């Protein structure tokens, strides 16, 4: 059709006028010779389970994503978000989504470490000096996405994966007393996940991997001496300050992690193209919002924890150096055992050399400006 508006044939126009004359407005509804038929459709609903307790801010991030999908789709696509354990245990989520027991999930790639150790590289370790946002840049533009898709195909996991939400550097962990040297870690019953298991084991800890909701109870019963999870808000909400009063900040064990949203591939492929685009857009929007919300909420809870008597200490540099040396040994061994592990490492390194050199040369030292500003107020 051209830009000009087509004129209705005279007969059609007359018929339309006759219909309008035959109708009557009753109780706000138009009735007449032909009944009005509602064309409203129920939204497509997908059930997504997170790997986080309902009270954790990570579960809130999953809810934020679902809200964006619903709003952006005009209500056509609804994602019902369930907390950890609602249908399956957290570490069983990937299989449940692949089999269609659940339509989707919200987790981190380190949780699938046991299926292929290469997947933990998206969150565990120093990432060649990249922060979490740079790892997401590598994933999107440096070949990471294609490598992850290849891993999922090799494992016959029928999922569609979206990575998003760059996390700040995670603490070394929560302890009964401050950790001043590597020897202080030896023999500690410690909780972590992914390749961090190998890293803390190499430093002498006795490691146990537990889901988020089970950590504090295990510490309270003495099954754990110390543990790490993620951030001030999650750690406070999960109850870490009830079982330990020392938190060691800064670590290379998970300095560049991000979230993963997964969908059952058949369910995802059955969606109309525009709803797939809605999901993609909602992921990107949620990634930005999560990083902003994290700054606001984590900083508030960091201050609140200090007011509640928690002592924060920077992890000593010798421990950080020991992590880097142990990481070199771990990744050499894993690369020899697992060709895909080596391919992911090589791809990350190639991207990091270019990206980190640019970022490190470009960014100013923000601490200088902060110290200058706050010195005036002391």
Q: What would you note in describing this structure?
A:
The structure is a single chain. This protein has two domains: 44-168 and 256-298, Bacterial extracellular solute-binding protein, family 7 (D-Maltodextrin-Binding Protein, domain 2); 173-255 and 309-359, Periplasmic binding protein-like II (D-Maltodextrin-Binding Protein, domain 2), CATH 3.40.190.10. The N and C termini lie far apart (72 Å). The longest helix is centred in the C-terminal third of the chain and has 35 residues, at 273-307. The model is unreliable at 1-40 (pLDDT under 50). The relative contact order is 0.15. It is globular, with a radius of gyration of 26 Å. Strands 4-3-5-12-6 form a five-stranded mixed β-sheet, with helices on both faces. The protein is an alpha/beta fold. It has helices at 10-21, 57-72, 93-99, 132-141, 144-154, 196-202, 215-220, 232-238, 265-269, 273-307, 317-337, 339-362, 366-375; strands at 24-26, 29-31, 44-50, 77-82, 104-107, 159-166, 173-175, 189-191, 206-208, 226-227, 246-249, 258-264, 311-314.
Helix percentage: 40-55%
How many extended strands? 13
Sheet-strand content, in percent, reads 15-25%
Give the structural class. Answer: alpha/beta
* Radius of gyration computed on alpha carbons: 26 Å
Please provide a brief summary of the model.
This protein has helices at 10-21, 57-72, 93-99, 132-141, 144-154, 196-202, 215-220, 232-238, 265-269, 273-307, 317-337, 339-362, 366-375; strands at residues 24-26, 29-31, 44-50, 77-82, 104-107, 159-166, 173-175, 189-191, 206-208, 226-227, 246-249, 258-264, 311-314. The protein is of the alpha/beta class and 378 residues long.
